[in-house]
Amino acid sequence: MFETHQFNTILDKEFLLENYDTLEYLLEVFGDFLALMPEEVEEIKAAQAENDKDKVVRKIHAISSAVGFVGGIDLSDRMKKFEVKAKNDPDFDIANEESQAIVNEIDAFIGIIQQEYNQLS
Amino acid sequence: MSFQSNIPMIDTDEQTIWSNKYVRFFKSTIGIHNTIDNMMGVLLQSLKKLDIAEKIYYVHFLPSGVAEIAYSTDASLVGLKIPFSKSHDLTENTFRLIEEDIALFSFEKTARKVIVQAIKTDHTTGLLVKVCAEDANIHTAYRYFSLLCKIRFEEIVSTYQTTTDLTELNIRFESILSKSPIPIVFVDESANGVFMNTKAYDLFGFSSDEPINSQKIAEGFSNLITKLQNKEEVQAKMQELMFSNSIDRWRWKFGAPINRTYNVITQLIHVNRYTGRIWIFEDVTIEEQVEERLQVINHQLIHLAEKERRDNVMKTTFLANMSHEIRTPMNGVIGAVSLLENTVLSNEQFELVNIIKKSGESLISLINDILDYSKIEAGELTIQPEVFSSVELFDDCVDVFYATALEKSIQLRVMLNPNVPVYIRADRNRLRQIILNFVSNAVKFSPNGSWVTIKVSARNIDGKPTLSCKVIDQGKGIDANEQELIFDRFKQLTNKHSGGTGLGLAICKRLTEMMDGIIGVKSKLHEGAEFFFEVPFENTDSKPILLGDLFIKYANTEACIWTVDSQQAVETFEQYFKDKKLELVAFGSPEKFFESPQNSPSMILVDSMQVKGELEKAIRVFRENGVSEQVPIVVMSYSHEKEAKEYARLGYSDMMIKPLKLKNVMKMVEKWVFKTVVQQTVQKQEENKPEKILNDHRVLVVEDNEFNQKILKRILEGVMDEFDIVDTGEKAVVEARKKKYDLIFMDIQLPGINGIMTSKLIRETYQDTDQPFIIALTADVFLKDSSALEEAGFDDYLPKPYRQKEILGKIENYLQRQSHMVL
């Protein structure tokens, strides 16, 4: 079990404890996340560089729940808000600072999951 | 150089003779000849003395193009017409010799030699014609002489014309300036050329016959300046003339006795070597008076505007504070009701709680009206489009007023045209505000026992999808004169007991305009009123799901629903049953169903109001006439009515809370005609995993994200051995055709066809009685807290990221319950 583990405060420990009853299970989930997400983020960055707003929004939507599943509830919510804003504003520049910032945040979040994975392993 | 043999050589003496003749011609034509007649006389007579020609004349062209002799050495020729026109090539000749047999140009009976020379100046073209004897010797020396004379001729004519032009210009200029109502003074640098027009004489106080010179004008200026009210200012500006050529705005203000204000414009004129200064005195007395008056008015207006702005700020602050004070406890009420809503409640309690909540929200919304108008006026209110369910919007509005309406026995109904999209994108809150306002007024002004109808449809206006809404009441109507005023702020109808701020319709009008829509009212006295608005919206999809599409699954269901209800109530839904095998038969009383042959009913709906509370009797009529006990009879009643509480005791199978809503009718059809369980709002929270008792059931997961698939897979593995996962809507439809699934977890945003469309296609695949439960899984925040998915055919919804226990709770709720259900 991992009740005593000090998680990074960015993660919702309660959610993790509620959803994953064993350490092995949690490690498996974190492992899957780390195996799949970096590629997704790279695709978002490429779409940003090509100014492909639809693709960026679609991808952000697709991984927002995955971020939530590994405890990034706050970030997941912000990604949803970003998605709504970008979708609803026809003039939204997908290469703007806000957009760059959310992608950087996702990048940093993957780093945090990696650290947690290493520590828990 | 060579000469042609037929050209006779001219000796030098001959050349000298003709050269000397030209010199004499030149000398004889020097001097000022003040009229054209004198000038022409001198020219022709001088030439005649020297030339070999017998007679010489000058031809000019009349405006009609006719050539006429204007001047001649032979006075008898003047006025005669010459047989050629201006366009004739003669006008291009510097020297042309014509040997004529007939007297075309010579006006003689015998043959003559005629020399024609074109005379051209900047302003005129003419011909100089010389008539010579037949044997006249036109040799080269003479030709040179003649050409030189022609040039001299042109030079003098041209000079004369310039002089004439200048004289005319001078006359025109002086006459214009003299008559000008503006005093004008001109003094040249040498002070020799001075000019003052009549008005300037008056201004300077000179008598009209008084001779003027530069000194006199200088004295006049000094004298004028002494009379100025703003003498210092004018003198100070005078210094600027040392550095600047012109001053444009220079006010000279004269007190009594002149009492005028002039705008003095002065400009240094510098052309070639000539320099002078012009002074123009523009009388701006009236303009200045108007300007001063305007300035005073402007100051007053600014002062008033500033005062009004301060008052408005105070009012807005006061209103904001007041609304905050009212809203705070109201939020407490709504919060508490929301908590109550999440506890275990019966259908009736749930509806009542829902009504309290929505009415509270409406109260807050009304409080905000006043604030809104201030914001609209201040340009601070903006339109905020969002995606929402059209059905939910109108149902919510009816809920808010149903209790008020019922106090007057007024029934509310929403008639949604099947062409209205399930989801639309527009400013939900502002539309709601307008609808609430319309419905509120309709309820307020309708007589007891009447109907208020909300008709909603969609149509294209100028290529834009537009939501059209009409709220129709049966009140006393509105006079044509009042209709024009009704949307003005603070205007209310003559009914003094109407209450309200008088801002409602004005806000609606402004909001509609802000959404690029239109608003209006149609009414005749004593015939009710129809308030309408049309507002453009955006579709959420290129092929939006329409309300009519939700009923497609009933198209091939051979069943019949009997309903005992008023015609008005039936009208609300009957359009959805048209052209479908699912039949709706309506009568005003139970007995009527048995007066003619009818298809056997699958379900019977009875409006408690229609049978005037005699529900027991109604059910007895059906049963006694052979309707099987297996046929469910559903009572439609307002929640407060005692029948609503006792429906089970009275022998009814179920109850439907009024006001009737499309989604509630659909639920009843699903539950009693298709025999499927309708999900209740309350979720049972189970902490323990269900055992693997679900092996008889099939579950399909439609999810495109690999990570999310893995999460769901692990959860399902714990409770069942067999389930399928696909990553597109297309694959899901294929799988659903191969196997019969009991439960489907459906992601909404999928590549290709989305989850909503996939569900629709799957529903079409299955028999009506075999429909699977479909639970939406989505991270789409638009769909949170919305019944929109339910209307689109989903049984339930889970937001992502979901918890394990939530998934297990749904599985247990649907599949285990189904296992125990008696079909």
UniProtKB/TrEMBL annotation, chain A:
InterPro entries: HPT_dom_sf, Sig_transdc_His_kin_Hpt_dom. The keyword Phosphoprotein applies. Coiled coil: none annotated. Residues 22-121 form the HPt domain. It comes from the Bacteria. GO terms for biological process: phosphorelay signal transduction system. Keywords: Phosphoprotein. The modification Phosphohistidine is found at H61. GO terms for molecular function: protein kinase activity. Pfam families: Hpt. This is HPt domain-containing protein. It comes from Emticicia agri.
Automatic annotation (TrEMBL), chain B:
Residues 169-219 form the PAS domain. InterPro entries: CheY-like_superfamily, HATPase_C_sf, HATPase_dom, His_kinase_dom, HisK_dim/P_dom, HisK_dim/P_sf, PAS, PAS-like_dom_sf. Residues 321-539 form the Histidine kinase domain. Its EC number is 2.7.13.3. Pfam families: HATPase_c, HisKA, Response_reg. Residues 698-815 form the Response regulatory domain. GO terms for molecular function: phosphorelay sensor kinase activity. The modification 4-aspartylphosphate is found at D747. It catalyses: ATP + protein L-histidine = ADP + protein N-phospho-L-histidine. It is an enzyme of class 2 (transferase). It comes from the Bacteria. Keywords: Phosphoprotein, Two-component regulatory system. PANTHER family: HYBRID SIGNAL TRANSDUCTION HISTIDINE KINASE J. This is histidine kinase.
